[in-house]
Amino acid sequence: MPDVVPLLKVVDVSLSFRGVRALSNVSFGVGTGELVSIIGPNGAGKTSMLNCISGRYTPSEGAIVLQGRDITRLKPNARAALGIGRTFQNLALFNHMSVLDNVMVGRHHLLKNSFLSGALYWLGGAQKEELKHRREVEEIIDFLEITHIRKAPAGTLPYGLRKRVELARAVAIKPSVLLLDEPMAGMNLEEKEDMARYIIDLNEEWGMTVIMIEHDMGVVMDISHRVMVLDFGSKIAEGTPDDVMANAAVKRAYLGEDEEAPAVASTDGEIAVGDAGNVVSWQ
Amino acid sequence: MKLEFLMQLVVNGLILGTLYGVVAMCFTLIYKASQIVNFAQGEFLLIGAWVCWWILTSFPVPFYAGFLLTLAFMMVFGILLQVLVLRPMIGEPVIAVIMVTIGLSIFFQAMMKWLFGVFVQPFPPIFESSAVSVMGLNVQPIYLLSVAISICIMVAFALFFKYSRLGLAMRATAFDQQVAQSLGISVKQMFALSWAISAMVSALAGVVVGIVNGVSAALSFFGIKVFPAVILGGLDSIIGAVVGGLIIGLLENLAEYVDGQWLHLGNLYQVVPFYVLVVILMVRPYGLFGTAKIERV
Fold it and tell me: Is the ipTM of this structure higher than 0.85?
């Protein structure tokens, strides 16, 4: 199991849009090398949480700490430079650019050449720099098995491949924390299996800490080290997949109030029955 | 004789067209990066030409040195303009930002008149011969130079956007600012860069036109002339801007030919581009190369 030194710490984060409270006092931590999933019913605040971490939203209260550094007020681009990479729930590729260019954009903050040194391609060292980064980008492309489409405009690709290209782009940032917003939404079973394998490899072999939002409970329970459950903007449970499956509050959130309802069917077909009231908390 | 006159006008049209194309490209650049329709584009030419004229007439420097100084000044000017005036306007309604650029246009015109007077000032002579003969047609050497420079700029633009790190980042920003930011691109820097490039390249065009016609407030009309070129090409297409510029340059000169030979209306060339603009927009509302907004459900 990964060590318990939090790489990313979310402390009492609340987020309000005028009257609507999207998140209230959510705290959690993610250790180096962990693969954590955030689940919850629609509108629970999962994507809001991710946006707070990536910097698209600034929390109304609370703090976000990366490697001991408070990044609550930093702009998204500064956070990306510190090593937070993300993908989006709805595809957000640069459609008219080639796959290769899309991935290279992720490299932006690692490249140092300026307007002038870029123009003096051979003299200013820009060529050397580019070759080095191109090699690493090719490695990523190779790993995600999108080599055959690297010159194709991203907008022409089928959905499953676009999702993979988006993952490649986020990986190109060289993130220490990778935020994935529904990486498997809209995929068929085979594509989901592939994606799950990539995520596990990124986590285990590339050493990336992953925070993932996903609706497919089968995948979530299979690959996550820990799971956090949000409902109406509050954290209702956190712990190992088994603990969370057995949690009464989670069942209530997903299935409604009726405690006497028949055994809970999770989406992968297994029947989840467990002791109620086993709220696991970890900070 | 008539054919020769026509050919001369076609050549003039192409030369003027490349200049329109360059300025239109600058206009498009700002629009693509920051969604601002810059009505002060013509004033960039005006300021560039005046600054270059001032440097050359006040200090004993050779032309190229004065020219490089002008470009450096315009780069700083473009960045300052974006940082001080337009950055605070980010997030405001588009119409408010457009009003600001119209205000800037009036302000800079007045300031240039205040600083340099209202009379046309000729540039110090740069080329010895006043015209060279190219295949039997008279062409001013500065125009040849301007075509060469314009083509260089167009190629440089193409290479910049296709291959350079910043060019790629600017394209990414133009497509989606939020996503670009989440990939570590500073959107503010990209905006400032686009204004700096636009101001520099426009100034270059301003100097060329200033050398031919002398420097005066009339230079800022270039900004208005470029407008049909930009709309024609589609507001967000760089290639479209170049093609649009060429079309408008040719149209103006052909209109002059038709007018001079048969119609004798006088000044037809000034309105023809706008007639054509109206017709083209009726057929293709998003311009010749612009992005048609397609809704996918």
Answer: no
